[in-house]
Amino acid sequence: MKLTIVGCTGSMSGPKSAASSYLLQAPGPDGNGGTRIWSILLDLGPGGYGQMWNYLKPTELDAVALTHLHADHCADLVSLHVFQKWAPCSSGGTISLIGPKGTTERIGQIDGNTQGSYDHEFDVTVISAHNREVEIGPFKITAFPAWHPVRAWSYRIEGPAGFPTDEIGNAKQLGPVTQTQTAVFTYTGDTDLHDPTIAAANGANLLLAEAGFTATEVPTNPDGSETRGIHMTAERTGQLAKSAGVGALVATHIQPWTEAEVVEQEINSTWDGPFEIAESGKSYLI
């Protein structure tokens, strides 16, 4: 598998990056006895869809998987909708869209409810407590409940280890090389640290985890105690990587006003394995 950071700024688009949007790719069957590259976008925040075109032809996108329906993770569905409906090069068919309950209604809200149904552009699969596994091409996606103010999921994704040599580009191997045919990638989406998040990341070869707060940015309650259940501090992001025993960590969803050096220091206080701060355009082999 290969991960490309399309957009990674926390809570909004920023001066250096679109909001949360990550391209995951892997070789899989083409339906004709051969293989092709399958491509999934994980979240589609403001500016993400246009930036994706720098890495992938829009006609080659197979699916979008949303972790939750906050605007910074899904607002560019409106751009995808426009392409699916109006672009001359579009197939005119539907694209797979995976997300929590309310995903279909959210498309209408973002688009201003300009049409009665969006079934001609999107084939929606709703993730729920009773429907947590989805397979798309070579990817097996398992959802774990996140700890966030709205219904949200973290995704554990299994797929083929490695990537075709002629398609690697500038992708780097951040952690140990996978010794098995199947690799595991986990994307936390937005969540505070809790047991299901650790389970989602358990043994992952690469963990893409949010670090939405630093220690000084955490909101407090009226009694002065720390407000939980929104984002992880960077320290907790490191704790997650350590508790889950991951191969490598990429920290993302950092606010545009936050200094990366502060995030790095907090992660280093709890995690001594390989890690990087997400930057738009970086790619990683899994």
Give keywords.
single chain; alpha/beta; 8-stranded mixed sheet; 7-stranded mixed sheet
Break the fold down into its secondary structure elements and pairings.
Elements: E1 2-9, E2 18-19, E3 21-29, E4 35-42, H1 48-52, E5 63-65, H2 71-74, H3 77-86, E6 95-100, H4 103-111, E7 122-127, E8 133-136, E9 139-145, E10 153-160, E11 182-187, H5 195-201, E12 206-210, H6 234-244, E13 249-252, H7 260-268, E14 275-277, E15 283-285
Helix pairs in contact: 5-6, 6-7
Protein described:
Helix content is 19%, strand content 29%. The protein starts with a strand and ends with a strand. The chain has a single domain (2-285), classed as Ribonuclease Z/Hydroxyacylglutathione hydrolase-like (Metallo-beta-lactamase, Chain A, 4-Layer Sandwich). The protein contains 7 helices and 15 strands. Strands 1, 2, 3, 4, 5, 6, 7 and 15 form an 8-stranded mixed beta sheet that branches. A 7-stranded mixed beta sheet has the order 8-9-10-11-12-13-14. It has helices at residues 48-52, 71-74, 77-86, 103-111, 195-201, 234-244, 260-268; strands at residues 2-9, 18-19, 21-29, 35-42, 63-65, 95-100, 122-127, 133-136, 139-145, 153-160, 182-187, 206-210, 249-252, 275-277, 283-285. The radius of gyration is 18 Å and the shape is globular. Strand 3 (21-29) and strand 4 form a beta hairpin. With 286 residues, it is an alpha/beta fold.
